Amino acid sequence: MDLDFKSFLEEFQQNLKNDDERFELIRDEIKQLETCTVSMSNIMNDIYSEEGLQQISLYCSKARENLPKIQRIYENIRKAFPEEDFFKYNFIWKTHTSQIAEWILLIIFLERGDLCLKKEFSEVIGVENDTQQGFHITLEEYLFGYLSMISDLARLLVVSATYKDYGRTEQIHQFLKRSNDCFSLLNLKNDALRKRGDALKYDLKKAEEVVSDLKARGHLTSTENKS
User: Fold this and answer.
1) Which domain covers residue 117, as residue numbers?
2) How far apart are CA 35 and CA 44, in angstroms?
3) What radius of gyration do the chain's Cα atoms show?
4) 4 falls in which pLDDT band (50, 70, 90)?
5) Considering the domain boundaries, does residue 127 fall inside one?
6) Distance CA 4, CA 25 (A)
7) How much is the pTM?
8) Is residue 226, in this structure, part of any structural domain at all?
9) Residue 31: its pLDDT value, please?
10) Which UniProt keywords are listed (predicted)?
11) Do residues 44 and 59 lie in contact, with contact meaning Cβ atoms separated by under 8 Å?
12) Close Cβ partners of 67 (under 8 Å, ≥ 6 residues apart)
């Protein structure tokens, strides 16, 4: 056998072995990441009740307790492969990153009433924001999380209206309107993102119906606008 070809085969086999080891290492970290996303989901889903509305700060604090572990997991994933191979492996954890973005964005909105932008989200979980930095948060990961958070807020708007937290109802309503206006300006090439963007319009429509009903019954006035 030609020595050059033999060397090529040996190198190819070694690369396959390295890939297998990296995939296995990353998957081990993803299992831990899943426990964090499940924990945050279980905690934050408790806000959709009368009692939950009154203890939102408590639930946000409890969900934040997952952050140190999440930061350590992303650091371990970052170390598992060369930076130039980021997009080779990114598909393994990108869905989980979007799920974490959903809950982090929701928590921050509930804590201070505005949107956590991509740069801040990156800092919260300890990952680079800049695409030139190798291991980073992609725009798609962030946007999928953002759109899921919008659906969470639309659900919370209905709950807040049901339990007469009208100030929160109008605050969320105004945020959904601004979000829809901004999102409609994006020229998205990702079909899945475009479809999720259509859901935002549906969420806003439901919110408008709830708010219109409250205004018709005199429960909501412009003075209650927290935007």
Assistant:
1) 1-217
2) 14
3) 22
4) confident
5) yes
6) 32
7) 0.88
8) no
9) 95
10) Cytoplasm, DNA-binding, Nucleus, RNA-binding
11) yes
12) 124, 125
Q: How far is CA 103 from each of CA 38, 41, 134, rounded to the nearest angstrom?
A: 10, 7, 24
DSSP symbols for 62-118: HHHTTHHHHHHHHHHHHTTS-GGGHHHHGGGTHHHHHHHHHHHHHHHHHHHSS---H
- Give SS3 for 134: coil
Task: Please report, for residues 37, 38, 149, the alpha-carbon distance to residue 99 in angstroms, rounded to integers and kept in the order given.
Answer: 7, 9, 9
Identify the pLDDT of residue 145. Answer: 96
Is position 136 within any domain? yes
Q: Please give the share of the chain, as a percent, with pLDDT higher than 90.
A: 70
Asked if the structure places residue 131 within a domain, the reply is yes
Statement: residue 8 has pLDDT above 70: no
- Kindly report, residue by residue over 191-215, the tens digit of the pLDDT: 788 888 888 888 999 999 999 999 9
CA distances from 78 to 9, 16, 162, 189 (A): 28, 19, 45, 27
Q: How many CA atoms lie within 13 A of 188 on its CB side?
A: 18
For residue 131, the one-letter residue type is T
DSSP 164: T
Give me the residue label for tokens 């997991």.
Answer: 73
Amino acid type, 141: E
Both structure tokens of 226 = 């927290």
Q: How many domains in the chain?
A: 1
Q: Is the pLDDT of residue 224 over 50?
A: no
Crossing angle, helix 118-125 and helix 94-112, to 10 degrees?
110
Task: Give the SS3 label for residue 215.
Answer: helix
